[in-house]
Amino acid sequence: KDPCKLLDAWDPGNNEHNYAALLISLATEKFGSNHFKAVIDTGRNGAQNRKDCHNFCNIRKAGAGRASTTETANNTILD
Predict the structure, then answer these.
(1) I want to staple 46 with a disulfide (CB 3.0 to 4.6 A). Which of 10, 14, 32, 62 is the partner?
(2) Helix/strand/coil (H/E/C) assignment for every residue in the chain
(3) Whether residue 46 has pLDDT greater than 70
């Protein structure tokens, strides 16, 4: 996902999910194995309450983020 339309301005790892997908892809290519997965710590990602997409780092009053869970957006690359 690219809700702020920043993908063209930055690298393809613009969020945790896309970064994990990029990392898995590079590891698979480098080591010739498709057994890699990533774990994303959602407990420290901050509450996504920003109103301006230009503010994406160290947002004031971001909070602790959503509690960690076993539900993943893509269980083929995320554990």
Answers:
(1) 62
(2) CCCCCCCCCCCCCCCHHHHHHHHHHHHHHHHCCCCCCECCCHHHCCCCCCCCCCCCCCCCCCCCCCCCCCCCCCCCCEC
(3) no
